Amino acid sequence: MTAAEIRETSSEPVVSAPFFLRGEVVEGSDARHRSRDLGVTFATPAIDLDKAVHPRTEVPPLLNVPVAEIIDFLVATGDRLRDEHNPFVRDCIDRMTSTHVLPRSVLQAQVTGAAYYLDKRLLETVVEQNFPDPRALDEWIPKRDFTGRKSFVRAFAPRLVHVLPGNSPGTAVKSIAQGALVKAVNLFKMASSDPFTTVAILRTMADIDPDHPVVQSMSAVYWRGGDESVERALYRPQYFDKIVAWGGGDAIDNVIKYLGPGFQLVSFDPKTSISMVGREAFASDETLDTAAELAASDVMVLNQEACVASRFVFVEASPEEVDRFGQRLYERIAAKAAASGDTRPLDGELRDQVDMLTMLDDEFRVFGRTDGTGLVIRSDEPVDFHPINKISNVVRVDSLDDAMRYVNVATQTVGFYPFDRMPDYRDRLASGGAQRIVHLGEAGPSTIGNPHDAMYPLHRFVHWMAHEDGVEE
After folding, report:
1. Coil vs helix vs strand at 272
2. How far apart are CA 431 and CA 196, in angstroms?
3. What tens digit of pLDDT does each residue of 294-324 get?
4. Name one Pfam family in it (predicted).
5. 3-state secondary structure of 426
6. CA atoms within 13 Å, Cβ hemisphere of 466
7. Cα 459 vs. chain centroid, distance in angstroms?
């Protein structure tokens, strides 16, 4: 819609979502959109496609900037993002509270907490873990094979479109940092539930140095996913090397149709995380309380909006024991939900599904209510819907071996208790397709530099270029 059409069609308040194009903040209300979860209206400028694309005839701005200098700039940005007086972050949170399902306190903690990713030691570790020889980011590395052939190899600056998720504002910080570390030309497609955080970070960078090559390498815009008038113009190999896509199945399916020779997908696609609790949890009331508390922590990562948040808890127990665990897990989820201030009721379809289960007493037991204050469903097989909004499905098994048939390539994180049994299961979990096994209660934090979604992302992002220089005499 045009700005005039927006004024004519409704008196509903409209929140503005500016763009950031290669160092320039672009305001405007040329188009109207609806946020995914809350259906709130927000307005954006029209996309200047020429400004959003760096021609391939232009060398990437960061190409010859040392990684060490890039890290220093990112660290300075992190300091500014954590400053409680940062006007861009304050404005971002003000706007995002109208479009995002999470409460203001959680959003504030996510944005400022994510800034701790911009730590010098952390960023250096990420680079070192992703590249056997990090010098390849800064220079052409000479090589010679056993036949005497000489060559030079470089991790060349890529051209990336990042399709960002709406569930975690902190992903914007990480994506911007990763794009800078590989010296990419970056176009960020923001999510409808959060068309603000990425621009707030980039505005903070521009406030430090508007001419810095990191700033000049970054653009952030919004369009409705699937809008062919935009995507057919942008998703082309003459402009970009790869799409780095986060999000649900629809988002991933949408970009796949544009892939082809020279234009690849790096996908952080939908994942489901689970927990596995062995019978050792029932050794005493103390161990049972411990296991329930740890499991609740994993369920409530980002109030269960994150991929690492547990949805299903497989418990090695008798029917009587599993209900004891389910009750204690519910109490702890409810306490964490109340402390967060996030007590959104379940949506209508999900509420109806849960209400149906309460009538099947022989097969299911439900602890809690469908009012968003926390809920546990006990069953002998996983429910056939996706638990979300503080819902945990506790599945009773005679042996944790029986839980293995539910592990597949969509299983991301497995929280495990007791810890000393983890080595017995890690090979089988990997064979089933799982990507990460952790102590129960530690689904949220991750070892710095480890693979994500079964890959080293930065290594995948870059354009690996070889210069072959003949046979050495």
Report:
1. strand
2. 40
3. 999 999 998 888 889 999 999 999 999 999 9
4. LuxC
5. helix
6. 8
7. 18
Note the pTM of the prediction, 2 decimals.
0.86
Let me know if the fold of 3-270 is the same as that of 272-439: no
The token pair at 91 is 């404005």
> Per-domain residue ranges for the chain?
3-270, 272-439
CA pair distance 198, 133, nearest whole angstrom: 30
Mode of pairing for the β-strands spanning 31-34 and 24-26: unpaired
Q: Quick one: which of 273, 415, 272, 389 has its CA closest to 336?
A: 389
For residue 35, the surrounding DSSP H or E stretch is none
Beta bridge pairs of residue 405: none
Euclidean distance between CA atoms 218 and 23, whole angstroms: 7
In degrees and rounded to multiples of 5, residue 207 shows phi and psi of: -70, -30
Q: What fold does the segment set 3-270 form as a domain?
A: Aldehyde Dehydrogenase; Chain A, domain 1 (3.40.605)
Question: Could you tell me what percentage of the chain is helix, strand and coil, using 3-state DSSP and rounding each to the nearest 5?
Answer: 40, 25, 35
> Which top CATH class is 272-439?
alpha beta
At 359-409, the pLDDT tens digits run: 776 788 999 988 889 999 999 999 999 999 999 999 999 999 999 999 999
- Digit-coded pLDDT (tens) for 48-81: 999 999 989 989 999 999 999 999 999 999 999 9
Please tell me the distance from the alpha carbon of residue 149 to that of residue 159, in angstroms, as a whole number: 30
DSSP letters spanning 182-233: TT-EEEEE-BTTBSSHHHHHHHHHHHH-TT-HHHHTEEEE---TT-HHHHHH
Q: Is the dihedral of CA 315, 318, 324, 330 positive or negative?
A: positive
